[in-house]
Recover the amino acids of this structure.
């Protein structure tokens, strides 16, 4: 029986966990070690972890330290919208509605743990969360973490005084503390069909002061190039490509380097990629060619700079590799783009 590849989320989900735990009177590092999570990855805020490990870690801590609101406390202590470049992009959205739609469209590039949607009905918006599938079981802590982060995200767009109309939770056994009720500042209903946050539809029209539609279009065009890779490749291969795009030309990109960022053994990463019909070396070559082609077609950078940014040490080796892959030299590629 072929094992299912892990569902990955950004290591940012555990940002501040050591400090939050210390504030609650315990050391979380033994729990991290039990789940094979490197604290250095958390401190560096770069990398991916298995969603099952995140889910299990939060439940372990809640039970082991008698801290039933740890997921809430962790989310509240973090920055809103910790989704890398996407979080910066939505600042250019003209309205809150545009920002949320943009965020929901591209969040899978950073986390595949669940699916969110905006549903409009009778003047009310429901920000609804769906888990990955019938074999996927979320603990109470991860539910509260996700709901708290979502309230935090909308509040960051709307302003600190914003509150939802209501919070709806699938679970019916969550012990709500005064701190939770005060933070949500809204009725909380348990035993609902879906986890969701409800608020007035009029809130979506709220303008964002930093809105810049032209800049938003430029950045989302870049994300649009990444989505097909996510759809066509498996989760692990798509996430490896995402990391490579940010590191090629400026940081080590060997198998061991990328496996470390994914908190995986290099052989485990190779096996996970093979299960998706991919290979690490092929992904590196493909990503280098993507970067090179984009730079050649859309910039006037000298070929020496393109060579470096595509991760090659010598212009001659880059030119040979590009010609074999694309059927024409880098100079010819640039000439073809200029002629269009």
């Amino acid at each position: 029986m072929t094992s299912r590849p892990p569902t990955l989320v950004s290591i940012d989900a555990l940002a501040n966990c050591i400090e939050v735990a210390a504030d609650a009177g315990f050391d979380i590092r033994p729990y991290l070690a039990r789940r094979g999570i490197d604290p250095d990855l958390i401190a560096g805020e770069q990398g991916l972890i298995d969603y099952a490990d995140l889910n299990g870690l939060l439940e372990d801590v809640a039970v082991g330290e008698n801290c039933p609101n740890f997921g809430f406390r962790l989310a509240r202590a973090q920055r809103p919208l910790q989704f890398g470049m996407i979080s910066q992009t939505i600042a250019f959205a003209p309205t809150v509605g545009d920002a949320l739609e943009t965020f929901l469209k591209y969040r899978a590039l950073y986390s595949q743990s669940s699916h969110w949607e905006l549903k409009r009905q009778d003047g009310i918006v429901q920000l609804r969360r769906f888990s990955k599938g019938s074999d996927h079981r979320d603990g109470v802590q991860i539910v509260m973490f996700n709901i708290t982060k979502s309230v935090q995200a909308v509040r960051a767009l709307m302003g600190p005084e914003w509150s939802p109309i209501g919070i709806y939770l699938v679970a019916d056994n969550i012990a709500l503390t005064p701190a939770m009720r005060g933070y949500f500042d809204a009725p909380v209903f348990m035993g609902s069909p879906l986890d969701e946050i409800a608020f007035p539809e009029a809130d979506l029209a709220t303008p964002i002061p930093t809105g810049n539609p032209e800049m938003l279009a430029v950045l989302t065009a870049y994300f649009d190039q990444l989505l097909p890779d996510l759809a066509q490749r498996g989760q692990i291969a798509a996430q490896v490509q995402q990391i490579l795009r940010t590191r090629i030309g400026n940081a080590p990109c060997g198998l061991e380097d990328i496996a470390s960022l994914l908190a995986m053994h290099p052989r485990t990463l190779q096996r996970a990629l093979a299960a998706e019909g991919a290979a690490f070396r092929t992904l590196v070559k493909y990503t280098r060619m993507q970067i090179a082609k984009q730079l050649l077609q859309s910039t006037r950078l000298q070929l020496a700079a393109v060579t470096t940014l595509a991760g090659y040490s010598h212009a001659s080796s880059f030119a040979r590799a590009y010609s074999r892959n694309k059927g024409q030299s880098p100079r010819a590629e640039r000439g073809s783009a200029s002629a269009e």
